């Protein structure tokens, strides 16, 4: 594992499948990976044991990183998004505000390296849905200062 990436396990789900021989137990793990410099990724790993599910999720997240524009320790502008049942509002905040966000949003934003942000989770309490919605919101951010 690279020291430059921060890895945060969001959710560990124990799942079971009925078979003729009984129950087959497995785990699904949701992981957020970021470099605290504007790159973040989300991965879901499934395996018979937790540690290999975490490795799979982390590996997927690292392969699917996105770049997030950070302006003065915050985001450039407000984003409102609805993905499935999850509704997320993220707003830029002045330096010194800190991260004013709930668990799922906080994990993604911290891994990304954003230090000042205000957010609100509406809709569902499902952490996985909220993580994916936040990821989608950050994906939609663009900077328009290309002409210099």
UniProtKB/TrEMBL annotation:
GO terms for biological process, alphabetical: translation
Coiled coil: none
Top-level division of the source organism's lineage: Bacteria
Record keywords, A-Z: Ribonucleoprotein, Ribosomal protein, RNA-binding, rRNA-binding
The keyword Translocase is assigned to this record: no
Single GO term (MF): rRNA binding
S5 DRBM domain sequence ranges: 5-68
Pfam annotation, one family: Ribosomal_S5_C
Gene Ontology, cellular component aspect: cytoplasm; small ribosomal subunit
InterPro entries the record matches: Ribosomal_Su5_D2-typ_SF, Ribosomal_uS5, Ribosomal_uS5_bac-type, Ribosomal_uS5_C, Ribosomal_uS5_N, Ribsml_uS5_D2-typ_fold_subgr
Family: Belongs to the universal ribosomal protein uS5 family.
Protein name listed in UniProt: Small ribosomal subunit protein uS5
Lineage: Bacteria, Candidatus Gottesmaniibacteriota
